[in-house]
Amino acid sequence: LFLISLLHISQPNREVFLFDLNSTNGKLELSNFKNISNNEGYDNQPSFLDDSTILFASTRNGQTDILEYTISNGNKKWLCNTEGGEYSPLKIPNQNAISAIRLDTDGKQLLYRYDIETGMSKPLMDTLVVGYHAWFDKNTIVSSVLEGDILSVYVSNLETHKNRKMDENVGRSLHKIPKSNLVSYISKKTTIWTINALNPLSGDIKFIANTLPKTEDMVWLNATTILMGKGNKIYKFNIKTDTNWVELASLQDNNINNITRLALSHNRKKLAVVGEL
Fold first, then answer.
1. How far lies 11's CA from each of 63, 65, 147, in Å?
2. CB pairs under 8 A, 24+ apart, for 110-117?
3. What are the phi and psi torsion angles at 26 (to 5°)?
4. pTM of the predicted model over 0.90
5. 3-class secondary structure, 253
6. What is the pLDDT of residues 114-154, one digit of tens each?
7. % of the chain exceeding 90 in pLDDT
8. What is the CA radius of gyration of the chain?
9. pLDDT tier, 273 (very low <50, low <70, confident <90, very high otherwise)
10. What is the pLDDT of residue 9?
11. Where are the beta strands (DSSP E) in 12-139?
12. Measured at the alpha carbon of residue 98, what is the angle toward residues 96 and 103, in degrees to the nearest 5?
């Protein structure tokens, strides 16, 4: 949520799409295409609350709030009712709550906790202007923080209230790497962007792979395979066996273009895609 107040001006109208995913023998099959946002306003930043429920930021009455979508029946429920706008929802580990970035009417931008049942909210961190975030564990957040005109990656401990700056000039895509104690982030320090792995406990950083050219949205299919979208295609990179990105699927038949964010259900059977029709 870099320069969040300009989101509606700077980004085109996008939708959130859902596919069934079948991944076998290195092949990716997508089926049962559905436009789950189907909204003329802003729709973005999908994440899975569980295998049957998706969260994403969506516009109602000119304001962006968090929408809960039930996959089985298509029911939609608004989770937030504050005067500010909410973005980038994520399930908080081991809690019946979500975290989301709130942009208040006075311009203040903070990361909040929202109780799913009551909607009650409270700030998780009150000193960092968080644009994007990922949960490492129930007490540790890795975030991309707005500093001047760039984003920097921070590790924050919610128990000690300590924030550590780990790198700067980074992207928005942050993901816990499956079966590891690492979080991936995008470095934009050079003209060739890279995917790096950060150990939030030790602070160690290592190179994983180059991104697709000037592309920063990704998701981990498993512990070794990354998915990225570009144009109307989805690509994969196996960090153990691949030297180049490999095209896996085209969404041309679904008339989806300019793919950005991707999100996978925990059971890896559903794929959410943000793109333009």
1. 15, 17, 21
2. 111/141, 111/143, 112/86, 114/66, 114/79, 114/80, 114/86, 116/79
3. 75, 5
4. yes
5. helix
6. 999 998 999 999 999 999 999 999 999 999 999 999 999 99
7. 88
8. 18
9. very high
10. 43
11. 15-24, 27-35, 43-50, 53-60, 63-70, 76-78, 85-91, 97-103, 109-115, 121-125, 130-137
12. 150
Q: What letter would DSSP give residue 92?
A: P
Residues contacting 157, CB < 8 A, separation 6+: 139, 140, 163
Non-local CB neighbours of 111 within 8 Å, separated by 6+ positions: 99, 100, 101, 102, 123, 124, 125, 128, 130, 133, 141, 143
Query: Given strand 109-115, what is the order of strands in its sheet?
Result: 85-91, 97-103, 109-115, 121-125
Measured distance between the N- and C-terminal CA atoms of the chain, rounded to whole angstroms: 22
Structure tokens at 212: 């697709």
pLDDT tens digits for range 235-253: 999 999 999 999 999 999 9
Q: How far is CA 269 from CA 43, 161, 167, 171, 194, in A?
A: 22, 37, 33, 27, 27
Q: Which residue intervals of the chain are DSSP H helices?
A: 7-10
In angstroms, the CA 164 to CA 205 distance is: 14
